[in-house]
TrEMBL record:
Protein name as it appears in the record: Fructose-1,6-bisphosphatase class 1
Signal peptide: none
Organism, as annotated: Litoribacter ruber
Cofactor notes: Binds 2 magnesium ions per subunit.
Cellular compartments per GO CC: cytosol
InterPro entries: FBPase_C_dom (IPR044015), FBPase_class-1 (IPR000146), FBPase_N (IPR033391), FBPtase (IPR028343)
Binding site for Mg(2+) 1: E106, D126, L128
Gene3D superfamilies: 3.40.190.80, Fructose-1,6-Bisphosphatase, subunit A, domain 1 (3.30.540.10)
Pfam families xrefs: FBPase, FBPase_C
Length: 352
């Protein structure tokens, strides 16, 4: 005779799938006293477009949508077919959603004015970062930043709606298309990660309140550029090697950043003798990841100045980027500052 109520062993039947992205967004709506649901809907629009892009990526090898498109973008980079597809998918989702008045995309020369003067938000996006890795089946990603427009609703968009520093972001995130697909985002109240369950068509909270380790032993930099780097940066890289750091560099910004966010490390894309301003774009790459890094307890700098404090002057402005664990970013900055001090002293001696 059973004397206690029967409680099934759930571990034998399956596992709890947890909180969906949609439910999580609804739970957090009170974090935005200025919003009345539009920002929540905007995040859902981005998540939906990412599902579609994820499907296209997964079938790329079967549908002849890998490889080059035959054109170059404003960066002078050869567009991949999936670059174009992703750009269309995200732009279409943001247009139909109705919350956005303008989009800045890596794949478009100019601001995309959606002719929606009642839209409260501007989105800056890299629809498919690392797309040159598609054909070799390496992780790639999407990066996005969300800003509130500053001009009155109902009026046409103005340059000041677009040219905002990263510290004005209201949300930012990335999607990683890898062995699993993850959406990671912040709205200024911590960082949360969601893993896409393809059979259910839902993102589930898998990485709540993500925190970057204060330090780490991973450095991520393209060492093929070593001879084009400054003396201070070369010294820092040598310092990493002398301290037995692991070198990890995929060549896909989202993937490199995501790994270091979880495990602790520093990602570096510096200015070089050939590209003094670096390669990465401020508005839709560096700002978004810097916001996420800081919300997770990390840091981001151009080597001298906080990324989020840089005032943009052009749509596709580039910036050096040092981002990751707080201690490692501070150490790198120290090496660069020491180099600057030596250069200044040498200049003073020559003047004297």
């Amino acid at each position: 005779m059973r004397t206690k109520p029967y409680i099934p062993d759930n571990s034998a039947l399956g596992y709890s799938v947890g909180t969906t992205l949609d439910r999580f967004i609804k739970m957090k709506q009170d974090d935005f006293p200025f919003a009345s649901g539009e920002l929540s809907q905007l995040l859902r629009d981005i998540a939906l477009a990412a599902k579609i892009v994820n499907r296209e990526i997964n079938r790329a090898g079967l549908a002849n949508i890998g490889g080059a498109f035959g054109q170059t973008n404003v960066q002078g980079e050869e567009q991949q077919k999936l670059d174009v597809i992703a750009n269309i998918r995200f732009t279409r989702a943001l247009t139909k959603g109705g919350e956005v008045c303008a989009v800045v995309s890596e794949e478009d020369d100019e601001v995309i004015d959606l002719q929606n003067n009642s839209g409260k938000y501007v989105v800056a996006i890299d629809p498919l970062d690392g797309s040159s890795n598609i054909d070799v089946n390496i992780s790639i990603g999407t990066i996005f930043s969300i800003y509130r427009r500053v001009t009155p609703l109902g009026s046409p968009i103005q340059p000041e709606d677009i040219m905002q520093p990263g510290n004005k972001q209201v949300a930012a995130g990335y999607v990683l298309y890898g062995s699993s697909t993850m959406l990671v985002y912040t709205t200024g109240h911590g960082v949360n990660g969601f893993t896409y369950e393809q059979s259910l068509g839902e993102y589930f909270l898998s990485h709540p309140d993500m925190k970057a380790p204060a330090s780490g032993n991973i450095y991520s930099v393209n060492e093929g550029l070593y001879n084009q780097m400054s003396n201070g940066l070369q010294s820092y890289i040598n310092h990493c090697k002398e301290n037995n750091f692991s070198a990890r560099y995929i060549g896909s910004l989202v993937a490199d950043f995501h790994r270091n966010l979880l495990k602790g490390g520093i990602y570096i894309y510096p200015g070089t003798t050939k590209t003094p301003n670096g390669k990465l774009r401020l508005l839709y790459e560096a700002n978004a990841l810097a916001y996420i890094a800081e919300q997770a307890g990390g840091k981001a700098t151009d080597g001298h100045e906080r990324i989020l404090d840089i005032m943009p002057t052009s749509l596709h402005q580039r910036t050096p980027l040092f981002i990751g664990s707080e201690k490692l970013v501070d150490e790198a900055k120290t090496f660069l500052s020491e180099e600057a001090r030596v250069v200044d002293m040498a200049a003073g001696v020559q003047k004297g």
